[in-house]
Structure prediction request, 127 residues.
Amino acid sequence: MTKSKNAKKNHKPMRTCIVTKQKKPKCELVRLALDKEGCIQVDLQGKIRGRGANIVPDVAVLEEGFERKAITRALKLTKDLSIEEKDRIRKDFKEAVEEKNFRPSNKPVKIRIKKDELVKKINGIDS
Prediction:
């Protein structure tokens, strides 16, 4: 029995949060990636090469991950994160959550404007 093409279209890859252990679609989680230089980066697109760990997009969950050392374990770090690294990750994570909330599912933002308004703005005529 072969699978239909619709089944492939509706498939969403699932990932598990390293802190809460909730299984969610990949697009609903934020990925932390350990790049080749050993730097931890917040990866919204999921394109950074290297070991990754997925977290629910909530700052409280990130803080719990720092406390329980879940991030250190998931990324297989040899030493614990420094205060500066935690602050940088926290700042980047907050920005990523704001962007994710602004653009759900990574859909591009479309701005619609009427042609007449555009012509007026181009010509410098205020209405």
